[in-house]
Amino acid sequence: MPVMLLNSVEAAKELLEQRSAIYSHRPHLEMARLSGFDEAFVLQQYNNDKWRQERKIISQDLSSRSVSKYNAFLEQEARVLVRAVTNNPSELNQLVTERIGTILIRVFYGYYVNDSDDPFLTLIRASMNIFSQAAASGVWAVDSLPIFKYLPTWLPGTGSLITAQRWRNLVCKAVWAPYSWSKKAFKTASSLTPNTCSTTLENLGEAISSEQEHQLAWAAGTMTAGGLETGIIGTLNFFLAMLLHPEVQNKAQEEITAAIGRDRLPTIADKPKLPYVRSIITEVLRLNPPIPLGVAHALSQHDIYKDMHIPKGTIVVANIWHMLHDPSTFPNPTSFNPDRYDNLPSKMEEVTNIVFGFGRRTCPGKTLAENILFIIAATVLATCHIRPKVNEDGTDVVTAVRYSSGMFR
Ligand code: HEM
Fold first, then answer.
1. Tens digits of per-residue pLDDT, 7-38?
2. What 3-state DSSP class applies to 194?
3. How far is the CA of 290 from the centre of ligand 1 (A)?
4. Residues near ligand 1 with C-beta < 6 Å?
5. Which of 67, 133, 216, 271 is the one with CA 20 to 30 A from 31?
6. Is 405 part of a structural domain of the chain?
7. Which domain holds residue 366?
8. Nearest 5 degrees, angle CA 395-CA 399-CA 400?
9. Is residue 390 situated within a structural domain?
10. Global pTM?
């Protein structure tokens, strides 16, 4: 299939937003589908019934108005994170993973993760790891030759089909185990509420069909997995930015002290009073977008753009990283500079309108993600100074910053 890379915001808006009716399919990733993700709405074709119903469940629960019901819980978890990190700063990565996982599993299923070996958290992480491998392009023979999937697995060279079957079993478990727990807990009123599964089960009542239940389980599973890696990356990049830019950290701390004082901790309702903290999060997402090439779209019918013929089926990739490093919009794009937004929401939106993707496939977890990152940043800045580790001779340990390659960065 031809691939079209969109480097400009103008082209992304024209094609993925204004012409979204034909630019919102996903590429057919056979290996990912065989590995169990055929039901996940991130891979569903645009506007099919499953995709619409699953997105509807999520947009009802996480709309900007209704997502605030999770605020108190997010505030509590940001404080738990601060306490854990101050006790054990060298375990930052693991502690952030545990906290983001706890938040998502609690929001979608009403289940509280108590330790890093929790079976639901482990399963969801494993399924995300599988997704990154199975959705990698150019790796699997079955992606370019779908007929390959019908070969018997005793034939030499078909090892990937056996791998897909193994992965499929694990992915199904990652979706159905937490959902089954949540459904049972809903019936006995023992889950933490509100949560997406119990709210939806309550709305649908006794008349829920097995198809609706399937959609709910997959909607919750897709969201939990979709939010995990991005939430971890955003939070770790925030800590890194504060470590590298103490002057920014000081300025944010001054903003917090001036706006809310030192008698209480920040809350999500304080967002309007803390534009510099919001600018920091925006700049973290701009400099290191968690999904630098977005999630590929696919074109559902032939099209013409600026005299170019674009064939049906073309894979359309939004180069989010490039757009967020365009020097004409973001001067000195490689420097970390939250002041570039002048504390103005309209300037920050130039980033958030890109980093969460485009058109009808835009990220359904956007508001939740923004709330999570904001409250973690505000709580950490209100209570801690993030400093590098110090050598025995009193000098800072400065380690090189390196990123691994993959779908997430
Ligand atoms: C800073 C954090 C995040 C960033 C930067 C981000 C970014 C993105 C991007 C670029 C896309 C692709 C949009 C497109 O196709 O044009 C996407 C899709 C998606 N995101 Fe996020 N995301 C974040 C957090 C989350 C969270 C917290 C969740 C869940 C709670 C989530 C769930 C999803 C799902 C399920 C999709 C697929 C939507 C579809 O195919 O219809 N994301 N996200």
1. 999 999 999 999 999 999 999 999 999 999 99
2. coil
3. 10
4. 41-42, 55, 104, 222-223, 226-227, 230-231, 234, 285, 289-291, 294-295, 297, 355-358, 361-365, 368-369
5. 216
6. no
7. 3-383
8. 140
9. no
10. 0.96
